[in-house]
Amino acid sequence: MPTHVPGPRIAIVGGGIGGLAAAAFLHRVGLRATVYEQAPALGEVGAGLVVAPNAVRLLRRLGAMERLLRRAVPLDWGWEFRRWADGSVLSVEKLSGVCERLYGERTYVIHRADLLDTVRSAVPGDWIRLGARCTSIDERQHGLRLHFADGSQAEADVVIGADGVHSVVRSTVAEPAPPEYSGICAFRTIVPADAAPAFALRPAQTLWLGPGRHFVHYPINGGQAVNVVAFAPAGDYTDESWSATATIEEFHAEFAGWDPRVTDLIDAGGVPGRWALLDRAPLRHWSQGRATLLGDAAHPMFPFFAQGAAQAVEDAAVLARCLAASADDPEQALKRYEAARIERTTRLQQISHGRRDINHLPDGPEQQARDAALAGSDPLAGNGWIYRYDAEKAPLS
């Protein structure tokens, strides 16, 4: 256990993956924090996600690998691109053995709730305040005051906004960046293993590419289920809530005519979730005075590079480093944190955005050129700048 030294009073708004990761890394460097989560219990909506080597190495340093491995599935194959109509394999990348050789860690897939539990295991239980919905923040002479929906207040020397895409903290520390309509919506469902075809239970991340749409699946829950997430034109649908649902018939209609293995997976799932992807331009700054942002509050990104959660964990590790190095000057620490992170996260926001158009090309010459490029690509090595990055060793300004 680290020895906690006198330091700034740190408030973390939001008890999701990013907020709890911030608390875990602050605990690791000997600083104390309080996490304020609006929900009455910790939990993550949504479904699965990829945990790539750049996040895995950080979770290992938190001592959380045993918890991670209880439910995560190590991938043997990734970027298995298939053609929408007949399932022909356009390209596939071997991950087992290669990830370890290149980056020192494997790549895993896991349910969001299981990753949240993994990160929570590295946070002291008495640091977490549930049912605490932050409504506003006031700047005081020597710190910040948080106001909560129940009328209570809290004082802090540093406030970290880890409260997601609709962040309250963001509205107080960064220039307004209203969301734009992306024209894409996502469907998600989880298929029990006993209802899933054998090909979907393989330790592989599979992406089916088709005109205007793509469809992703991989096993989760220790191989006891298959996570399905698919992207399609949104039409006039604009609900961004992860608790919103569609019908199986609506999901099925979007992928009518696709390979039967795709439509069979849709039929085997439960009631699908559905949410609109809204587009948000990268922020030029996300720290002001003694308040800052991390994760989706700072840099929400399309999920097409599977780096949203990983970037929140990286943010947490860098932020803890900066605060530990300048505990007596929080404003300077937050400036260093932003400077160290903003270029990388902005780049990931931009390339994730661009991948939408590449994945959704209509059949024709451009699609054929894309497929030929996929066949000759090596995305694991080509994206080394993502997976090689070590948030605890990266230079700070």
Strand content: 25-35%
Oligomeric nature of the chains: single chain
Strand order of the largest sheet: 6-5-14-15-16-13-17
Distance linking N and C termini: 29 Å
How large, in whole angstroms, is the Cα Rg?
Answer: 21 Å
Q: Helix proportion of residues, in percent? A: 25-40%
With helices defined by DSSP (H or I, 4 residues minimum), what is the helix count? Answer: 14
Low-confidence sequence ranges: none
Give the integer mean of the pLDDT values: 93
Helix- and strand-based class? alpha/beta
Biggest beta sheet attributes:
7 strands, mixed
Please report the total strand number as a whole number: 19
Shape: globular
Describe this structure in words.
The chain is an alpha/beta fold. The chain contains 14 helices and 19 strands. It has a seven-stranded mixed β-sheet, sandwiched between helices. It has a six-stranded mixed β-sheet with strand order 8-2-1-12-19-18, covered by helices on one side. It has a three-stranded antiparallel β-sheet with strand order 3-7-4. A hairpin with a 4-residue loop joins strand 10 and strand 11 (153-156). Helix 1 (17-28) packs parallel to helix 5 (112-120), helix 1 packs parallel to helix 10 (308-325) and helix 10 runs antiparallel to helix 11 (330-359). It is globular, with a radius of gyration of 21 Å. It starts with 9 loop residues before the first strand and ends in a 10-residue tail after the last helix.
